[in-house]
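// run 5 | inverse folding | seed 20
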């Protein structure tokens, strides 16, 4: 039996990575089986990979380059790459098939989490479904979410989604600038109203959105830096006023917000439920079926807390793709017009009649994936893959970026070509969402909601608007676009305007606005 940790070439990393480094120390990168030959590397065929990136005389991988670096390693070393991070083994998985094998088929042994002391304990995120270890609570929370927003129940929320998307279309009519904040407001409204009811959104929905943004921002910072308290846990006892104790202040603030988002909306929901005033929402359905519990409180908070961020970023990426490829958007509009007649708004149920539009949505998710690397799973026992030994406690990282750009799968990955999803392939091409939303026990339980909301918003935008550059600006060439690369990959400084496609689009938007005014009276 070959052992990954003994048989692969090594690259030294000299010290703690600063600021935006990925996690901590990188001590080695080692070659694994190559996909083309199946050759098993021996101890005497080592190659040293020289990474020429230095920061204050220290060799680091900046956090914003993690996706690029992992993909470079995938091209050089193959489908599996082994890395040692300060004594913590990590296996980087670069193909969809191997991720399915390790993380879905072997989910019982490869679904643990390892989260730093800063993020898990100081920020008090132990309750969050994304970080809970597999077990009874994790299983029960996922069961409740399947009941509420799984494939059999998701359509029960269509009226809310349709109504909020109409409001979004009217808002976009007036927008000239970055689409992200407007999308965030709509997605926040959908997720909070769906989770806790429209009463909650009306009472303090904006507060919840603000808390959500601050928590997610702080967690992102926690995952993008090395914290001494992660290694020396006793540092948690130092006073927050001491120099260098910023981590303590941020931890205290985030812990407070985590307690707030769990307790405040749940207490209000229970009041409304017990008085018979809670309308249709996920909380009402789950209280009817399971009754009140801490698990229910945490399930609702977890859905609302992380239920919109990925979808917002996917939609920004889609809008940007249509901005860069207006001829594709025109073809989408032509297909939608055949379904709606161009005289009525698109309906959620129309999706099955729109194969080209669905292909474009998939290609937008694939072409510039917003999440280059998945949150690592951790193995809870020894295992083997392709003849190699995986130690217990290995972090298994999914290289989403390479999976969605591997030329062996996608042939021409740099081209935006939706037709690839309408062609016959053996094996069939994976749906990009089946990669971006994770694997096995850790697949995002909100995937059906995200798909339903994301596709309907995307198709509705193209059915009503041309996405145009602002005045005195032009559409850049795709190869000239700069991207922000951190936890998510998004176009830098992307701004645009939304112009109704034609007279019929103006009439539809006018009717949407009249309907909103009538509801507000």
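// decoded
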């Amino acid at each position: 039996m070959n052992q990954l940790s003994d048989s692969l070439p090594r690259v030294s990393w000299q010290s703690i990575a600063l600021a935006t480094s990925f996690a901590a120390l990188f001590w080695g990168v080692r070659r694994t089986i190559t996909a083309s030959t199946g050759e098993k590397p021996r101890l005497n065929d080592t190659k040293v990979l020289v990474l020429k990136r230095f920061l204050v005389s220290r060799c680091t991988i900046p956090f914003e380059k993690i996706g690029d670096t992992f993909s470079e390693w995938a091209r050089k070393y193959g489908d599996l790459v082994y890395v040692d991070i300060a004594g913590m083994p990590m296996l980087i998985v670069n193909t969809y098939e191997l991720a399915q094998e390790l993380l879905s088929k072997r989910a019982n042994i490869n679904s643990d989490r390892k989260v730093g002391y800063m993020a898990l304990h100081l920020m008090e995120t132990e309750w969050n479904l994304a970080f809970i270890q597999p077990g009874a609570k994790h299983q029960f929370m996922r069961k409740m979410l399947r009941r509420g927003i799984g494939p059999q129940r998701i359509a029960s929320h269509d009226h809310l989604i349709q109504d909020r998307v109409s409001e979004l279309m009217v808002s976009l009519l007036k927008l000239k600038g970055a689409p992200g904040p407007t999308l965030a407001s709509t997605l926040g409204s959908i997720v909070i109203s769906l989770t806790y009811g429209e009463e909650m959104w009306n009472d303090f929905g904006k507060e919840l959105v603000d808390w959500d943004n601050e928590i997610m921002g702080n967690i992102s910072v926690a995952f993008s830096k090395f914290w001494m308290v992660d290694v020396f846990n006793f540092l948690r006892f130092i006073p927050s006023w001491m120099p260098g104790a910023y981590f303590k202040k941020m931890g205290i603030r985030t812990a407070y917000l985590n307690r707030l988002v769990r307790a405040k909306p749940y207490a209000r929901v229970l009041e409304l439920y017990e008085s018979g005033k809670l309308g249709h929402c996920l909380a009402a359905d789950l209280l009817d079926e399971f009754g009140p519990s801490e698990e229910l409180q945490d399930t609702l908070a977890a859905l609302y807390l992380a239920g919109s961020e990925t979808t917002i970023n996917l939609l920004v990426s889609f809008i940007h793709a249509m901005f860069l490829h207006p001829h594709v958007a025109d073809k989408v509009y032509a297909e939608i017009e055949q379904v709606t007649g161009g005289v009525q708004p698109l309906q959620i149920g129309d999706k099955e009649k729109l194969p080209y539009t669905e292909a474009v949505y998939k290609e937008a998710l694939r072409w510039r994936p917003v999440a280059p690397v998945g949150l690592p799973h951790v193995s809870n026992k020894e295992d083997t893959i392709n003849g190699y030994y995986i130690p217990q406690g290995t972090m298994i990282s999914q290289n989403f970026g390479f999976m969605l750009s591997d030329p062996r799968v996608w042939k021409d990955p740099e081209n935006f070509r939706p037709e690839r999803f309408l062609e016959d392939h053996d094996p069939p091409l994976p749906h990009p969402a089946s990669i971006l939303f994770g694997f096995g026990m850790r697949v995002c339980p909100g995937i059906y909601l995200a798909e339903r909301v994301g596709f309907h918003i995307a198709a509705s935008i193209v059915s009503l608007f041309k996405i145009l550059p602002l005045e005195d600006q032009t559409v850049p060439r795709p190869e000239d676009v700069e991207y922000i690369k951190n936890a998510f990959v998004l176009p830098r400084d992307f701004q645009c305007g939304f112009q109704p496609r034609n007279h019929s689009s103006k009439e539809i938007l006018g009717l949407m606005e009249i309907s909103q005014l009538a509801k507000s009276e």
